[in-house]
Write a structure and sequence with these properties.
alpha/beta, Methionyl-tRNA Fmet Formyltransferase, Chain A, domain 2, seven-stranded mixed sheet
Length: 289
């Protein structure tokens, strides 16, 4: 099948590689333009562009470039922009979406599933519509959430999604038949800086936020990134951080968390105990927020 592929992050790469391995003719890859990153502000290609060039595929940055190729179908995986209806009218497109639609339509379905404490999520292969993640479903595959990090769960779903997409393309029945989304729709709002700020609300919410990656809190008005943590049986009061029985523990409203690895602002990742030992002043408890 002759395909145009649209995608940007690392999570889209397994599907692109799968299409090539399955001998589909990827006529064009559309991705987001190179971005400036790092201290030197060097231009860096998207993971999809890097993979496409490695595979010897033609890369473009404009949706209008689709008008220059003849294809049977489009495949979209985390492209990062809405596809206009005029293009969808000319090229039917399948979307690999990382949730069990209609739950978690939108930009951050994996992270929202983790934050909400969902036990299960998955991948939906849908026909793309101009409206956000509303298209009919050709195939869904399920995955447990458990204690997985957003990075780990996204990687798992990207691999499941690649296989599911290829299954749909290989099946005339799955490709020709789809079912409308059923159930309550929820919206996966875009992540903001505040999404990653750790909360006093509960141990569970604290740990789920840590699983997102990039979680942080403030102690003595200084920002501290929290890389990993686990529940603790030690008791400390809500909002208190202290070293107790060989652990650095923080009190929430319903229990205590022990932090394992941290990243102080402007410093490297280290154990929580090494961070605590390096603090100036006494070993007295502090407050966190």
């Amino acid at each position: 099948m002759r395909v145009v592929f649209l995608g940007t992050p690392e999570a889209a790469v397994p599907t692109l590689r799968g299409l090539v391995d399955a001998r589909h003719d990827v006529a064009l890859v559309i991705t987001r333009p190179d971005r400036r990153r790092g201290r030197g502000s060097d231009l860096v290609a998207s993971p999809v562009k890097s993979a496409a060039l490695e595979l010897g595929l033609h890369v473009g940055y404009r949706l209008a470039d689709i008008d220059d190729v003849e294809v049977d179908i489009g495949v979209v995986v985390a492209y990062g922009a809405i596809i206009p209806s005029a293009i969808l009218a000319r090229v039917p497109m399948l979307n690999v979406h990382f949730s069990l639609l209609p739950r978690w339509r939108g930009a951050a379905p994996v992270q929202r599933a983790i934050l909400a404490g969902d036990e299960e999520t998955g991948v939906s292969i849908i026909s793309l519509e101009a409206t956000l993640d509303t298209g009919p479903i050709h195939l869904q595959r399920h995955a447990s959430v458990g204690e997985k990090t957003a990075q780990g769960l996204t990687k798992e779903l990207s691999e499941i999604g690649a296989i599911a997409l290829l299954d749909v393309l290989a099946s005339p029945d799955l490709l020709a038949h789809s079912s409308e989304q059923a159930g309550e729709a929820t919206y996966a709002e875009k992540l903001t800086k505040e999404t990653f700020r750790l909360s006093l609300t509960s141990v569970d919410l604290f740990l789920r936020t840590v699983h997102l990656g990039g979680a942080y809190l403030f102690i003595d008005a200084k920002r501290l990134g929290v890389i990993s943590a686990h529940p603790s049986i030690v008791h400390v009061a809500e909002g208190v951080v202290a070293r107790v029985d060989g652990e650095v523990v923080l009190g929430t409203r319903d229990g205590t968390v022990a932090i394992e690895e941290v990243r102080p602002e402007g410093s490297r990742t280290m154990s929580a105990l090494a961070w605590w030992a390096g603090r100036r002043g006494t070993d007295q408890p502090r407050t966190w927020s």
